[in-house]
Amino acid sequence: xxxxxxxxxxxxxxxxxxxxxxxxxxxxxxxxxxxxxxxxxxxxxxxxxxxxxxxxxxxxxxxxxxxxxxxxxxxxxxxxxxxxxxxxxxxxxxxxxxxxxxxxxxxxxxxxxxxxxxxxxxxxxxxxxxxxxxxxxxxxxxxxxxxxxxxxxxxxxxxxx
Length: 161
Prior knowledge:
Pfam families: MarR_2 (PF12802)
Domain HTH marR-type: 24-156
Radius of gyration: 20 Å
Number of helices: 6
Structural class: mainly alpha
CATH class: Mainly Alpha
CATH topology: Arc Repressor Mutant, subunit A
Organism: Streptomyces coacervatus
Protein name: MarR family transcriptional regulator
Strand content: 5-15%
InterPro entries: ArsR-like_HTH, HTH_MarR-typ, MarR/SlyA-like, WH-like_DNA-bd_sf, WH_DNA-bd_sf
């Protein structure tokens, strides 16, 4: 039996299973289902470009903030430094990224896009824009704007929690 405490909090009685019957219809699961669907589409559409969605995220982060270090990038992308190092090595081998010595700290290396990296990012971003336009087209401009605002609000609420 679930006792309704408020819109967002429910209390369980001990005679039930480990989760409420509505566990998969919660807001967090709806967010996760949307994330999985978007991520799968990004992977599918970026694959012909020889790029993974994680690499796109890394490249756009470096483009937006040139000179990031691997540690800063790991924090920004919410992944381990080892995961960033692995992706950086792959992208560097392909000539899309380069490491440069930090101007004041010789042991720190900054990441920068190469010309080939900027070109690859442009192609990948066109794929992402196409996915986003499809979503916005289906929702319509008003609902797309509302969804963006609601997702920003969710991010703010979770950060404050």
